Amino acid sequence: MVPGKIAFEFTASVWQHASPGGWFFVSMPAGMASEIRTQLKWQEEGWGRIRARAETGRSRWDTAIWYDTKRKTYLLPIRSDIRKKENIREEMDIRVVVWV
Questions:
Q1: Strands 59-68, 73-77: parallel, antiparallel or unpaired by DSSP?
Q2: 21 in a domain, yes or no?
Q3: How many domains does the chain have?
Q4: Cβ–Cβ < 8 Å for 86, 16
């Protein structure tokens, strides 16, 4: 648990952005994203960014979630060092906890 933060736990499939060398992400479930957008939008910085902490497997890191207006959800980037440490691949379903 992260003091003073709200935890959102979900399972999602890892996907890679289509650009060359594109980042890897998981998309938050639509209902969860809607709840965050309704309750915590005031925390958004530029481009729909909200600072967060994330956890998958045994790894926890400081990050941000980004609101994607086309997908209508928040995206959580999965850094390369986390993917390597946790042996995460594209299209793999992973359990994630995000504290906002």
A1: antiparallel
A2: yes
A3: 1
A4: no
Whole-Å CA distances, 2 to 61, 80, 88, 96? 11, 23, 24, 14
Closest CA to 8 of 31, 25, 30, 32: 32
Torsion angles phi and psi, residue 39, rounded to 5: -90, -30
Apex 14 CA angle, 85 and 25, nearest 5? 90
Q: Residues 14, 54: contact at Cβ < 8 Å?
A: no
What is the torsion angle, in degrees rounded to the nearest 10, for the CA atoms of residue 29, residue 32, residue 38 and residue 41? -80
| pLDDT over 90 (residue 24) | yes
Q: 5 in helix, strand or coil? A: coil
- Paired residues of 11 in beta bridges: 95
**pLDDT above 90 coverage of the chain, percent:** 76
70 belongs to a structural domain: yes
Q: Global pTM?
A: 0.90
User: Is residue 26 within 8 Å of 96, Cβ to Cβ?
Assistant: yes
Which residue has 């933060």 as its token pair? 5
